[in-house]
Amino acid sequence: MLQWLKRFLLITPKEGSKEVPEESSEKVPKWAYLLPILFAFFGGVIAWLGFRNRDGAEWLFYTGVIATVVWVVLVVLIVMS
């Protein structure tokens, strides 16, 4: 359980330790995009932190930023109408 948590959070080893965080060639699962879509910027940051050692993790953050812009535009349009 602790190894999984270390890998998930990508905790860096202490200096002098032989333990090195694994770089993964796995892609981000499609369901992970729900977090940035539903929770916008904060969801994107949380999803990126969770999957940052996987290929395409930066797109989780970008999706959160885009979702934030969409939400702001929608709110402005609703308030102005």
Description:
This protein has 81 residues and is mainly alpha-helical. It has a domain at 36-81. The protein is 60% helix and 0% strand. The protein contains 3 helices and no strands. The chain has helices spanning 2-9, 34-51, 58-80. The longest helix is centred in the C-terminal third of the chain and has 23 residues, at 58-80. The mean pLDDT is 82.
Keywords, separated by commas or semicolons:
3 helices; mainly alpha; 81 residues
Task: Say how many strands there are.
Answer: 0
Which bin fits the share of residues in helices? 55-70%
Determine the N-to-C terminus distance.
52 Å
**SS-derived structural category:** mainly alpha
Low-confidence spans: pLDDT under 50, at least 5 residues? none
Order of helices and strands: HHH
Radius of gyration using CA atoms only: 16 Å
Number of helical runs?
3
Major beta-sheet overview: none
- Average pLDDT, rounded to a whole number, is 82
Residue fraction in strands: under 5%
Shape verdict: elongated
